[in-house]
Amino acid sequence: MTQKTEKLVRTIGLVLITGLVIYAIGAAMYRDLTLSIQLGYDF
User: Fold this and answer.
1) Please, which residues have CB within 8 angstroms of residue 1's CB and are 6 or more apart in sequence?
2) From CA 35, how far away is CA 43, in angstroms rounded?
3) How far apart (Å, rounded) are the C-alpha atoms in residues 43 and 16?
4) Can you spell out the DSSP letters for 1-43?
5) What pLDDT, on the 0 to 100 scale, is given for residue 43?
6) Greatest extent of the chain over all pairs of C-alpha atoms, in Å
7) How far is it, in rounded angstroms, from Cα 11 to Cα 17?
8) What is the pLDDT of residues 1-43, one digit of tens each?
């Protein structure tokens, strides 16, 4: 592997990990939001 390819692979990996973390946080927040709205309307 050349240095350029290695850097590219590392960058792609970082972007993927960051995207996954943001998606996980977003999904958790969205779930909490919908749950609280459902509970709020139920009572």
Assistant:
1) 9
2) 13
3) 41
4) --HHHHHHHHHHHHHHHHHHHHHHHHHHHHHHHHHHHHHHHH-
5) 52
6) 62
7) 10
8) 799 999 999 999 999 999 999 999 999 999 998 888 887 766 5
